[in-house]
Amino acid sequence: MTVAAALVRAPAAYVTLPDRGRQSVAASYGPLPTRLSVPLKAPQQPLVQELLPPLNELAQAPWRYVFQIRVPVPLVREQEAGTLCFLTHGFLDPDSISFREGMDALKRQIALVLSRPDDDSPEESPVTAPAPRGGRSRRAETPSALPSIEDLPGIGTFEIRFGSNLISLSAELMRLTGVPTGTQCPIEVFQNCMPVPDTDLLHFAEGISDEIQFPETDFAIENLTDQTRSWVRRRAEIEADERGTPWRLIGTLEDITRDRVATNRLSAMVILGDALRKVDTPAEAYHAAASALADALGADRAGWALFEASDETHFRIVQDWHSAGLPSAAGTYDRSDYSVALNMLEQGVLFSVRDAHENVWLPCLVPEHGYKDQIRSQLLMPVLSQGHLTHCLYIQCCTPRDWTDQELAFLRAVSDRAQVAAASLEARAHQQTMHQELAHRLKNTLALVQALANQSLRGVDNRDAVKAFEKRLVALGSAHDLLMRQAWRSGDLETLAREVLARIAPIERFHLAGPPVSLGPNTATTLGLMLHELGTNAAKYGALSAEAGRVSLVWSVVNEEARRNLSLHWREEGGPPVAAPQSKGFGSRLLQAGFGHQGSAAVAYPETGCDALFTLPLRQAQSN
């Protein structure tokens, strides 16, 4: 490494300019006192470097600089010379050739930057600058000084000279970025605060390209002092000379963290809502909530715990989200190890920890990894059901963190959504269990009715009537089975027809056709009994009593008189000649009644077999 390169990496440096008999600091790099006043003592030989002891203030803690290397810098517009000073902790040989060559190169570059025509009049050096967001130059009226832009809270200003590799920062911008080098620093140091470097600023500062545009853009920055991350919006304009050559960039960085955070949290709530609509279990609901919290609040680990009423000594971390550098916390834990936190959670209190390694809810020691957990701060949100702790959402960070009221409110909102979604899924599962229990009891009831009928009607001489009654019970049970499988909400028409008719004759002897139609419980029960009656009659007297006979059941949805009707047409073919029944029993009255007073029924008996047409409003057929 050459001495010149070593000088560039000196712990600190500053440039002084003449100011009424004294020298004042114009720009600095590295940790230096806030107020640094340098007495005027230019060396006798303007091109000879001096090795001087540092000022008493610079030799004290925390700076402890041992040597000060002063380099005179002649100015084009001034008779007096400025001074470049490097502060080091060790000794450098100023007489070496590499040292002199390196210093000469640095001195020429600084002299070139300081001799820019800032004092030229508008007539001598007209300056042009671009319109906002475009990069095209516009004519400046007073190029003799930087625009008078004062810092506002959250808005810092900066300036870059083309090809200088330096950036000048305002006080507010230094606060936002945490750059420790003073008001002016190399562009590479400034770029350290950007996780994604701003290549446009780099290219302008390095003089790589003069065809750069600076549209308004947003990006993240990380404070170099406290490592906090924030979002800024950059606006910049280029100033060019009379030849159109860019020579200066001025701009602002506005802190938009609050707006960005609010937007991210709103987006997280929308994504969470979409995710909760797709979950099938309470566990999936709480995991979706943990993922939303980790993303919106920038956590290092987030998850949820389950507290089962049947286990009063343990709780489980079921699933969690964690960054690449952290292990998963999933596992079973002893409640007695976390009694303090659990007492608060059982009272419904949101538990907030800013910075603690003691009394944390999750263990500091992860046994399978064999090292202490890095968690420093966390939030614990309990979920209670009927006064008992059932679940807990948590988020954790590896750095101390002051949780804001907005973050706590966001955690509560996410927890409420997850709890509502989980409760809905649990209620649905409970309802399904109740339906299954009801279906089981109904089957037992119908079986009991059938057994009682057999016992009670054992002495009846008309066995045909007894068998017809039993078969009607079976048809009723088929309709109820279908409704139970659909949770008593609706039953598919074709499925019901197949189940009822298949008990009478092989299903291949039936032609079933029509669009998908769901039936409400009342209509499904009535249709099941009607199809049983029609199928039984066809098997006894009609088409199904002959080997070549066939039955057609066709349904359709038609628009009639400004309403939609469901139409079902039963027709028999290929059977023996039939005649209308002479007496009207239960079956005949059931078919004539159809689906009630809002519908219609037309039953005829041509020689080919029974021909029946039933209609009813579709809305009534699907009503629950």
Q: If you had to describe this structure to a student in words, what would you say it looks like?
A:
The structure is a single chain. This protein is of the alpha+beta class. It has a six-stranded antiparallel β-sheet with strand order 3-2-1-6-5-4, covered by helices on one side. A six-stranded antiparallel β-sheet has the order 11-10-9-14-13-12, sandwiched between helices. Helix 7 packs antiparallel against helix 8 (282-297) and helix 8 (282-297) runs antiparallel to helix 10. The radius of gyration is 44 Å and the shape is elongated. Residues 1-7, 42-48 and 116-149 have low confidence and may be disordered.
Strand order of the largest sheet: 3-2-1-6-5-4
- Helix fraction bin: 25-40%
The description of the largest β-sheet is: 6 strands, antiparallel
Quick check: average pLDDT? 75
Low-confidence stretches: 1-7, 42-48, 116-149
Strand tally: 29
User: In angstroms, what is the radius of gyration?
Assistant: 44 Å
SSE blueprint and pairings:
Elements: H1 3-8, E1 12-19, E2 22-29, E3 37-38, E4 50-52, H2 56-59, E5 67-74, E6 81-88, H3 97-114, E7 127-128, E8 139-140, E9 155-161, E10 166-169, H4 171-177, E11 184-186, H5 187-191, H6 199-206, E12 217-222, E13 229-240, E14 246-255, H7 257-278, H8 282-297, E15 301-306, E16 314-322, E17 331-334, H9 339-346, E18 351-353, E19 365-366, E20 371-372, E21 377-385, E22 388-397, H10 405-456, H11 463-485, E23 491-492, H12 493-501, E24 510-513, E25 518-519, H13 521-540, E26 550-560, E27 563-573, H14 586-593, E28 600-604, E29 611-617, H15 618-622
Parallel strand pairs: 24-26
Antiparallel strand pairs: 1-2, 1-6, 2-3, 4-5, 5-6, 7-8, 9-10, 9-14, 10-11, 12-13, 13-14, 15-16, 15-22, 16-17, 18-21, 19-20, 21-22, 23-25, 26-27, 27-29, 28-29
Enzyme class: transferase
EC number: 2.7.13.3
Protein name: histidine kinase
